[in-house]
Specification:
By secondary structure, this protein is of the alpha/beta class. The chain contains ten helices and six strands.
């Protein structure tokens, strides 16, 4: 499945490639049948290879659409633009320091971005200190999830700009997510959006857009699978490929004390 996703090949072509590789290596094995791979793809459990520090992470999130060739695509080509195409939405969480994809989900096109923050946080091993995103993630339920994260004692700092018409909200009790958002509203009104983004580190969010661009540029903007569980596995395999590429091609840097 990894070879097929990386080389943009259907399962039948990938089966022939794997069989040729096995013969060249003189290994007496048969490549799995493409129909078997298609049936079992949705049940695969894929683990993202992550080599980050795992503690005190600064995570940025973003989402983008992936096209699926289906009935809507065929009708659009036959009868015009009035028929909707079929899309899936890919949600990514990236580590700012390493550039690795630490969590991801694939949903239907109409799913809200902020609703996928909690499922992605549950995939991350270790403590998350900061989470950055655009204005689409400014939702009270999501902010409450960051203020009271499950499995973590300390809250997660939200580097998310409030909506343009945002105002200070009053509450009878002190809640972390309400106080944090009120503080961002006050800081933006006092400093201005540009200065707030520069001082808060909001511009690190562009790394999430880079991750989305890297996914589409290397693996393509489409999904070959037809069913949603298989599409979710296909997208996760793609994220695993990108992490392996980072491990192989990105140098590791360490601080070294230079004697006087």
């Amino acid at each position: 499945m990894t070879l097929g996703k990386l080389l943009h090949q259907p399962l039948r072509q990938t089966q022939g490639l794997v069989q040729s590789l096995l013969e060249l290596m003189c290994i007496d094995l048969e490549a799995p049948d493409y129909s078997t791979l298609s049936r079992r793809q949705g049940d695969l459990q894929i683990t993202l290879p992550v080599k980050g520090k795992g503690e005190g992470l600064h995570v940025v999130v973003d989402s983008s659409g992936l096209k699926v060739y289906g009935e809507g695509e065929w009708r659009t080509r036959q009868y015009g633009w009035s028929y909707r195409r079929t899309w899936r939405k890919l949600h990514l969480s990236l580590d700012v320091e390493t550039g690795e994809i630490v969590a991801q989900t694939l949903t239907l096109a109409g799913v809200d971005d902020a609703s996928q923050v909690k499922p992605m946080l549950e995939q991350i091993e270790g403590r998350v200190d900061r989470l950055g995103g655009d204005g689409a993630y400014d939702r009270w339920r999501m902010l409450r999830t960051l203020a009271y994260p499950s499995g973590q004692a300390t809250p997660i700092e939200a580097v998310i700009p409030p909506q343009r018409q945002a105002r200070v909200r009053k509450a009878k009790r002190r809640y972390r997510h309400i106080e944090g958002r009120n503080q961002r509203v006050v800081d933006i009104d006092r400093k201005g959006p540009k200065k707030w983004k520069r001082e808060s580190g909001y511009h690190h969010r562009s790394l999430a857009e880079t991750g989305v661009c890297r996914f589409k540029g290397i693996l393509g903007p489409t999904l070959r699978s037809r069913k949603l569980p298989s599409q979710q596995v296909e997208a996760r395999i793609g994220c695993s490929i990108l992490n392996r590429m980072i491990h192989l091609g990105k140098s590791e840097s360490y601080k070294v004390e230079i004697p006087a």
